[in-house]
Amino acid sequence: MSHLRKALRFAIIGVALAIAPAPVLAQSKQPSESREAPAAPTEAALAVGALQIGSVANLEVAGFDIAVTAGSIVYSYYFTNKSSADLAVTAALSLPELHASADRSETWTLARNDAENFVDLSITAGGGPVATKAAVRATALGVDRLAEIQTERLPLLPFGAATDKALAALSPETADRLAALGIVSPRNPAQPKAPLTGDWSLEVVQTWRLTLPAGKTTPVVVKFAPIAAHYRLSKGDEDEISDIKEEVCLKPQVLNMLQSRLKGNGAWNVIDISLAADAPTRWIDSPAATISVQKPKPDAIVAFCGLDEKTAAKPAVFGTAPEDNEGIRIVIFEPAK
Hints:
The chain is of the alpha+beta class. The protein has a single domain, classed as Sandwich (Immunoglobulin-like). It has helices at residues 3-10, 146-151, 161-168, 172-180, 238-243, 252-263, and strands at 24-25, 42-43, 52-53, 59-68, 73-81, 87-94, 98-99, 106-109, 122-125, 128-129, 133-140, 143-144, 201-212, 217-224, 229-233, 267-276, 290-294, 301-303, 316-320, 327-336.
C-alpha cells in the first residue's frame, strides 16, 4: 500500500517553529522467514482533538483561529464572558489514541517520550500558562488495564524502543498471562525469538478549570507538535494524487501541475497534517475556524478545503474551515531534488 493511501487511513486532522527533532517511536521490524526484506514502516498521521468546554449562560465563542507551520500547530480560541460575574467551566482536550501496528507496517513520530504529553502540548489562557490534569486509560479488549501494565513496569506508550525493551524482558509465563488478557501479542511458536507487540490502546484527556473574567474576551491558546505523515511521491504515483483531490479540494490546474512534475521524473516531498476544526461546544453557536498555513519553502504547494485561492501563491496561505466539517486535512507538497 502506498504512503499516501496509508496516510489517508489515519488522516483526520495537525506544528513549533524550529523545535528539537522529534524522537521517532517506531515499530521495529518483525523477523521474517522470507528472504525478501520487509518494507519499511509507513509514517502515518494521527489527530489531536479540538478544545472542548462546558456551556453556561452569557458565554460567547467570539473566534477560532488555526495557525500551521511545518513543525507546530496553534489553536486560538476567543471566549467572551458577557455577564457581570466571572464564569468557570470545565475544559478538556483529547490527545490522539495510540496503539501499536499489529503487522508493524505503520510508525508514528511523537514529539516527546511522555505518555501524558507526547505532542509537547502547552496551553495558555489570558496570556498565562494553564496547568492541566491528565486522565489516562490503557485499555485492552475494551477493559482498562492500566494497573496491570504499571505492575509489570511496562511503559504506557504502546510502542517505541523503551516498550520493545520492556516487552523483551518479560518472562514467558508473564508474557503468556498478559497475552491472555489481550495486553500483548501472543508468542509465535514458529518464531520464538520474534519480539512481542503491545496490544493495548493509550487514551489521554487533558482537563482543567477555565475561568473567564466578567465582561472580557479571553484568548485560550493551544499549541502542540502534530503527529503528521511524511512521505515522497515520484514517477508512477500520479494516481495517488488523484485519490485525494476531493478530500483536499485540489483545483484541476493544481492537480495537473503536481502530476506533470511526477511524469517528468520529478518528485514531491509531502507533509500530511490533520486538524480538529469542530466547535469548542455544541450548545453554543461558533464561527467557522480561520486557517493559516506558513509554507516551509516559497515553492511549496498547500492544499486544503476552504483555501482562499487569492493567497495560494503567497508565503502564508489562508482559508476558512468548511461548514459542518469537523476535520480538516492539509497537504503540503515540496519539490524534491
